[in-house]
Amino acid sequence: MREPGLLDERILVVVDAVPVGRLVSYGDLAVIMQMLGMPCTARRVARTMREFGAGVPWWRVVRSDGTLAPAVAQPAAERLRGEGVAVDGARVPLVQLRWQPDLDALSQLMR
DNA sequence: TCCGTGACTTTAT
DNA sequence: CATAAAGCCACGG
Questions:
Q1: Element (H or E) spanning A24, and its range?
Q2: Quick check: A64 CB within 7 A of strand B?
Q3: pTM, whole model, 2 decimals?
Q4: Beta carbon of A73 within 7 Å of strand B?
Q5: What does the pLDDT read at residue A88?
Q6: φ/ψ of residue A13, rounded to 5
Q7: For residues A49 and A37, what is the distance between their CA atoms, to the nearest angstrom?
Q8: Which of A5, A45, A104, A110 is 20 to 30 Å from the Cα of A56, by its Cα?
């Protein structure tokens, strides 16, 4: 089992900062990491979540169209409903609940 | 160095 | 609405 690298660690820190009931897409996270100066893509974020997402609110990370990743759709839907998110089938209202991190506070978390 | 692999995304059917 | 195809790019082997 691979050991989490710097990028992994930082992605996890950001995901851990997503508030209850709010959402972010894999692509959003990739852009955030890029703004922090780290090369990253949506697929890369997905990989980190798959391998090391267990310790953070992974269910708040969804696809860009608001659907849930098939591999975790069921458990994610349950947890999301549990925190008040309206889950329609395997789709959530990403547009309304999208979380925008405060970059200043974010860079503080990175120190 | 090269290559296959995606918890992805966007565009076209 | 669903599906497919193409694009994407860091990563590990």
A1: strand A24-25
A2: yes
A3: 0.95
A4: no
A5: 94
A6: -60, -45
A7: 20
A8: A104
